[in-house]
TrEMBL record:
Signal peptide: none
Domain Glucosamine/galactosamine-6-phosphate isomerase: 10-225
Gene Ontology terms: biological process: carbohydrate metabolic process; glucosamine catabolic process; N-acetylglucosamine catabolic process; N-acetylneuraminate catabolic process
GO molecular function terms listed in the Swiss-Prot or TrEMBL record: glucosamine-6-phosphate deaminase activity; identical protein binding
Taxon lineage: Bacteria, Bacillati, Bacillota, Bacilli, Bacillales
Protein name: Glucosamine-6-phosphate deaminase
Domain of life: Bacteria
Keywords: Carbohydrate metabolism
Pfam family, one: Glucosamine_iso
InterPro entries named in the record: Glc/Gal-6P_isomerase, Glucosamine6P_isomerase, NagB/RpiA_transferase-like
Assigned GO CC terms: cytoplasm
Amino acid sequence: MKIHIFESADQSGLEAARESARIINEAIAVNGTARIVLSTGASQFEFLEHVVKMDIAWEKVEMFHLDEYIGLPVEHPASFRKYLKERFLQHVNIGTFWLVDGEGDTNEVLDHLNREISKAPVDLALIGIGENAHIAFNDPPADFEDERPFKVVDLSDTCKMQQVGEGWFATMEDVPKQAISMSVQQILKSRNIISVVPRQSKARAIQDTLKNEVDVNTPATIMKTHANWSLYLDKQSSSLIYAWC
Ligand SMILES: N[C@@H]1[C@@H](O)[C@H](O)[C@@H](COP(=O)(O)O)O[C@@H]1O
């Protein structure tokens, strides 16, 4: 595990984008292509803004989408497909992309995604950490054993509260009850994992992730078992680390 702490969310996003570009370009140099997974959510704003400007042969990159609400129209402001189209896909000449269609036939969508992701290793996964320390939509207590690459998960109240708190939905009842999410096991199969986690709202989750033993109740702790996990923080999200170390 490598922890990088920067003064601002912007700097943290920039440095994570630089490191991502390095990994992607190395994969392209070795294999001719790079396979990546992208997260969404407010934590990825700065990172995405910077990574689309990096010197990368995007036409040689295959992108997978980490998670999406089931039943939420793509036009909805909280749709993660809308998010990735506006913040990433419109800015790069991507080779191939696989968005998680939360409005399609769920079994067909899962079959398709599971087949595609299993074809080759993922070189780099950008994995955000939620206020409840979830990774993708694997809320606590997360299933660390499930081998299915993508699956249907129920969203917890703490997850829904974060989405309402950030203004994506008006009330808890408006947040979809389920999502299609990449599993913890599939995330861990990635050759490199970068977690960009800025802002004060994540300080507790970061403290818990670093301090707690690997435990299903703090899902992000599992990433401490990964050989190539890098955590990019800012001053605010790292503020509680010093309280115990
Ligand atoms: N579905 C997204 C994930 O793609 C993201 O990695 C994670 C943390 O992101 P954030 O806290 O910025 O929403 O949870 C979100 O709900």
